[in-house]
Amino acid sequence: MTQYRSLRALSLLVILTELTACGGGKARAPSAVAVTVAPAAKQDVPYEIDASGTVEPRQTAAVESQVTGLVTRVAFHEGEDVRAGQLLFEIDPRPFEVALAQAEAMLLRDSAQAAQAARDAARYAELAANGDVTREQEEGKRADAAALAAQARADSAAVATARLNLAYATVRAPIPGRTGTVLVRAGNLVLANSPAPLVVINQIRPILVRFAVPQTDLPLIRRYGSQALPVRAWSAADPEHPSAGRLTFINNAVDTTTGTVLLKAEFPNQNQVLWPGEFVNARLELFVERGVTVVPAGAVTRGQSGTFVYVVNADSSATMRPVTVSRTAGPVAVIASGVQPGETVVTDGQLRLATGTRVSVKSVSGTVSGDAP
To answer: How many CA atoms lie within 13 A of 181 on its CB side?
Structure first.
């Protein structure tokens, strides 16, 4: 009984002490939550599609020899740029010069014989008209003249072929571009139309980037595709400065395996930053929305009831505001409704907020559209 009274007295003492403390001092106000904020702004925001792309030459030429012969000279250094029509290889021309001389001699001989046969045919035609020779003799002379004329024409074609083979002994660049590995040297025997090329030339100025986009974007691409849409590409060689190009090709079919459409863009590539075979980040710009309201993408939170942001009021309290996001463009979210330009939104610290929570601003970030891939 005595122990029960002691516990009761101790409990009363604790209660009185708490009441005295509460009555003697004021209750502490909850501390403000430190947040990062940014202003909602009105900006022009491009509608862009990001994709991974591959660089490929605008043209590729596998240079082959069209005649069989011995290489006497390689007139360029592998890996250097060449012009269209520039001398690349020389093949020993002497066999082709001899063949041309023979063909020209045969043409002269047969042309002379054809001319004589034509005169004989004309003379026999007069004799046949006077009855001095038979009609069969006159027809035979006419047939001989026709045969020799045909032979002369064949000889003329043989001369053209021999002259062409002589020209083929000089191998020139069919396109401008960068040469690859030289696969033959002076002294090597090359074969006509061999499957192994003498050298491969890639045209890299201008150059192409191929990339695929989802088929859901095809209607917009077809709508704006006639306007030479701008494309940017970020190369590992210069990730801070994208190359600027234009869309030049939309494939005529959707890839049913991946559900994507193949596109190609052409870049001047004067600084040769883009290199055949490398992977790049590509960005296609379809159009630009003028004067839309944007906030940093990090300010938008998705909850059970939809998307919302926290707006900081003039009295430093936060209010949860439902918003409608039309799309996200890089680091910004385009707001269709819910926030007005100039209002301040919370970009970091939202998890500790509720409507009415007081906030303290620890930093302010800008609302800008990004240009990084």
So the answer is: 2
